Each structure stands twice: as structure tokens, then as C-alpha cells.
Amino acid sequence: MKPFITGHEELIHDIKYDFYGKTVATASSDQHIKVFDLDPATSSWILNDLWKAHDSLVVKLSWAHPEFSSSRILASCSFDRTVKIWQEQTEEMPGSGRRWARLATLNDSRGPIYDVTFAPNHLGLKFGCVGSDGVFRIYESLEPNDLTVWSLTVEIPILNHQLPAKSLQSSFRVEWCPSKFTTTEKFVVVALDQGFIYRNVTKLEENDKDTGCDKKYVKVCALPEHNGLIRSVSWAPSMGRSYHLIATGCKDGFVRIFKATETAHAEGMGNGGEIKLETLAKLGDHKKEVWRVNWNMTGTILSSAGDDGKLRLWKCNYLSDWKCMSVINTSNQSDSRGMEGDADKPLN
């Protein structure tokens, strides 16, 4: 592990790898976005370009799947109440300040925007965003040949009132269900100390007056037991499981792992369904605020980072207990721990 010097003049709020893991983008309070490409010969990060992206601090970034364009697409959100869509101009010189062109500026929010996330590619080119006005919005690109046009297709009120925009202490997050084999489109929206799972309304439910559904999405359940702001949420890839795993990192110092099982909505209406939620683990090893959780590509190992300055890796053992398998700290040392019952076996 070695330091990554970005050169930002102020605090970095977000860093995101692209689909291939060979490009990384950073967002900062200095109102700039920087993009770096990996040099395979030296394993170092080379500046692709930097530019002033917003009129206030840049909070979050999200890469679109590469299947939608011949050049890379990046979304950013800011305290200036806008989401902006950027596209790489490969004909421009790196570091020229013109390498990334703004495709669109979306300013429907009435307050700072705290998170923006592109949906999985099987759902089409769309993204969700949420901010202090307490409204979750989904934008879609309905013209594949014109990425400057984005339509606001969904608005879901999450809070009953708008929050004052004072600092980043307000927690709002968006996480899409990555599984393409699930019965309906789903996502999690986190608002302060609450997390809600939504799913889209099926065709069978559109004419069901008992549901009271006049929207495209309905709330199916809430993530329980949090005693502070939810700083991060991550939905694990399914990899053939009959259920979903959702992890959260909370200000109360705990990493929580939930098992979400889909159930039939009603007899003859299997396309809809509800979600039964079960708490599998409540992990307090950080003992301080947890800022980020993230699953690996197979949904078998969870990483978490907290105010204790350590990155922890979690894995489920044969007894179905979640254990800390490794601790990585800022002194470049790794404290590997054997799993219960598997102390003599290597963890790969």
C-alpha cells in the first residue's frame, strides 16, 4: 500500500473506479474533478485531466456502464444543487482541461445533492439522486444517440420536510439492486438514520386498487435497528443466492448485514412481491463511526472503513457467523485473522 497523491487543494469527498478498474475519478471541496489512468508499466496513476465541475463542493461521482457509449461517461453531484453528466473527449490532449465535456446539467433539486448513482446496465441508462430536499429522483436517457437529453421520470418524497444545508453531516445514499434475475427492479434509499427499499410496480399491480399505487415504485420495507446516521449502504451481487445481502455502515459504530428474501405479493401475482428482512450480523469492531461499506464482486466478502483508521474485511464462516478476517491500517500492516473453525486454512 502506498500513498495516492491527488493534488486536490481541499478535502476529497469521493473516489470511484471505472468499470475496468483502470481509471479512477476524485471529487473535492475545491470544486474540481480529477481523473487518473493507471500506467501498467509503473503501477502508478497518471493524470488524465482536471476541471472545475461545479460552483460548490463536489460530493459524489458515478461511472456509467461502458456499453452505453464509445467513450466514458461520468456523473457528479454537488452542493450547488445540480447533477452534471460528463463525457470523455478522446481526441483532446490529456491534462488540457478539455478532455471531459459537459453533456447535461440537471437542476430540479431544491437543495444540495448528496448522492448520485447510475443503475445497473440491464436496467438501461438511468441514475438516481437524492439530496437535502428529501426527494429521490430518477433520470433516464431516452435517446441513445443523444446523451445531452435526460428525462426526469420518477420523484419519490423520502422526508416530510427539507433539511437546512449546513454541512455534510446529513446522510443520504442510493444503492441499486445489482441482480438482473430479481423479479422486479429494486433500490435502497438512505435518509439520515433510516433506509428504505423500493421496488417498481408490476403490470398486474397497476390495476390493483388495493395497493393505492399511482406511482412507478412502492416502498416495501425499512432497514431496522440503526441508532445514528447511516453513512453507507451496499447491496451485494446475488451470485445465484435465493436471497439478497445488504450491508450498512452507521454513525453508531456498527456494520450491519441484512438478509432480504423476496416473497410473493399475492396468489397469482408472483411478479410483485414483498421483502422479508432479517438481521444477520451487527459488527462493532470499529468502535467508532463507520463511513463506508462495500461488497466484493461475488458478494462473499464485505469491506468496511471507519474513524478508527482501519479497513476491515468480513466473511461468513461455516457456522453462518460473520467474522473479521483481516484488518488493514494506515501503517501498511495487515493483521490477518483465521476464521472460526478454519484457523489452519488460508483465506483467498
From TrEMBL:
One of its GO terms (biological process) is cellular response to amino acid starvation. InterPro entries: Sec13/Seh1_fam, WD40/YVTN_repeat-like_dom_sf, WD40_repeat_dom_sf, WD40_rpt. It comes from the Eukaryota. WD repeats lie at residues 5-39, 51-96, 283-315. GO terms for molecular function: structural molecule activity. Signal peptide: none annotated. It is a peripheral membrane protein. GO terms for cellular component: nuclear pore outer ring; Seh1-associated complex. Keywords: mRNA transport, Nuclear pore complex, Nucleus, Protein transport, Repeat, Translocation, Transport, WD repeat. SUPFAM superfamilies: WD40 repeat-like. Pfam families: WD40 (PF00400). The keyword Protein transport applies. The keyword Transport applies. It is found in: Endomembrane system; Nucleus, Nuclear pore complex. Belongs to the WD repeat SEC13 family. This is Nucleoporin SEH1. It comes from Lodderomyces elongisporus (strain ATCC 11503 / CBS 2605 / JCM 1781 / NBRC 1676 / NRRL YB-4239).
